[in-house]
Write a structure and sequence with these properties.
heterodimer, A: alpha+beta, 4 helices, B: alpha+beta, globular
């Protein structure tokens, strides 16, 4: 079973921010080089969610194949705060990615269990998908990410499905 | 980057075979711990659920990266690949689509539910990550 990191009480999120070069120019996409510098740094704690969200803050529209929608900063601020507030310390951390459609995607995986959470930063909602890679078992649900009850449900599902490797 | 079907599709399809590798460019923000996310193989609604790839019979990985980065001006950390046979195993048709440029092809996810798209993208990701990077600059 894959060993998933947990968030520690002493973990400081801001110190995981990648080193960013000064804005020294622009790359071939006419984007500030700082963007490329951010993206090419290996995060010291890649599953530190607020730190990952910080990495997305300087993304601009067109970041992906000239059409990708940048996640809105206020949305990233909201999600970072909500995650800090509601996500229990004992629950395995996700990998976090920007989606070209402007949302933030979190992924968890352990054994045959996969969980994907697509978070709409405008609506403060999320689409939850769990599936068993070895069967047709799956479950989808829409979550209100402003509701602590939905965060609790999410945490409970992650605990049950990914810490034992069982559905 | 996805285009429409090619009237010479049948002839072109004959040049792709089970062993043909289909290259995907990977955005740097989609790599954590050296592993690419399934977003790499998830088609977008923006492109009618047709996933753009490079036809490995017509271009090698480094040249594909150079085209993507140099000529198209797009950002890629490197090249991963799945084969036509691996797509067929997942009931994902792959076909040439030379309208944007001659080496362009697509993997067709049309008609699938969200969960099926995600499952297949997850499987393609695993296959590609297992194969390893074909090119990194």
């Amino acid at each position: 079973m894959e060993a998933l990191p947990h968030r520690s009480h002493t973990q400081a999120h801001s110190d995981a921010s990648p080193t960013t070069a000064p804005d020294e120019g622009r790359n071939m996409q006419n984007h500030p080089l700082r963007l490329d510098s951010v993206q090419h740094v290996i995060s010291p704690r890649p599953r530190d969610v607020p730190a990952r969200l910080d990495e997305f803050r300087d993304m601009q529209d067109g970041w992906y194949e000239s059409w990708g929608i940048a996640p809105k900063r206020e949305g990233l601020d909201w999600l970072s705060t909500a995650f800090e507030r509601y996500y229990p310390d004992d629950v395995p951390l996700p990998y976090t990615y920007p989606n070209p459609e402007g949302s933030v995607r979190m992924e968890w995986s352990a054994g045959n269990n996969a969980v994907i959470l697509e978070i709409n930063l405008d609506a403060h909602s999320a689409e939850w998908l769990w599936f068993d890679r070895d069967s047709d078992d799956e479950f989808e649900r829409t979550l209100d990410m402003d509701e602590s009850a939905d965060w609790q449900w999410l945490a409970s599902e992650i605990r049950s499905k990914l810490t034992t490797g069982n559905a | 980057m996805a285009g429409v079907g090619n009237p010479q599709q049948t002839d072109d399809r004959q040049r792709m075979n089970d062993d043909t590798l289909l290259y995907r460019q990977v955005h740097p923000s989609w790599i954590v711990d050296g592993v690419a996310t399934s977003l790499t193989f998830l088609p977008s609604r923006q492109h009618q659920y047709l996933l753009s790839v490079y036809d490995g019979d017509k271009i090698d990985p480094e040249a594909a990266w150079n085209h993507y980065h140099g000529e198209l001006g797009l950002t890629s950390e490197g090249v991963l690949a799945v084969s036509v046979a691996e797509c067929d195993d997942l009931q994902l048709p792959a076909r040439p689509d030379p309208e944007p440029f001659p080496e362009h092809a697509v993997i067709d996810f049309t008609g699938l539910s969200n969960s099926k798209r995600e499952r297949k993208a997850d499987r393609l990701k695993a296959i590609a990550n297992e194969r390893g990077w074909l090119f990194r600059p």
